[in-house]
Amino acid sequence: MAIDKCGGVATPRWFGYALQSLVYLAHHADRDDRCPSGEIAGGCATEATLMRRILSRLARAQIVGAREGREGGYFLLKPPEAITLGEVYRALEIAEPLHSGMLDSADDCTALGSGMKEAFGDVIRETERRMMEVLDGRTIADMIGQVFGQKV
Prior knowledge:
This protein has helices at residues 12-28, 37-44, 48-60, 85-92, 111-136, 140-148; strands at 64-67, 73-76. It is mainly alpha-helical.
């Protein structure tokens, strides 16, 4: 399980907030300034503490940069078209895969449950592989285009 120094365990929900924060930063990049975590959190309708946890993982992966102090805040280290959604997903080190819960219904104590767990496992591995192919083929610039109807 990936536990952040701040005590946060990355969940699939973090992925959505991470994408929103990167779109927010990219959309505000033309102002050539840094955005404080509170401002980004407000734009994403979440808590600043959670946003800082997410942004710290993105900073470790060198997707965003951070500067402390009065003029501090977060900023993109790469252009939006160079940041893939797959890169963001991997940077978060999400402890619980997006497909979590699919195996919970298959009980190992029964013959049917054991067989279903194995069959689900094959489906889940294929789903995960295909999901990463899709995420690796999409960028933050693509997201901006869909959200704001503009090319970056």
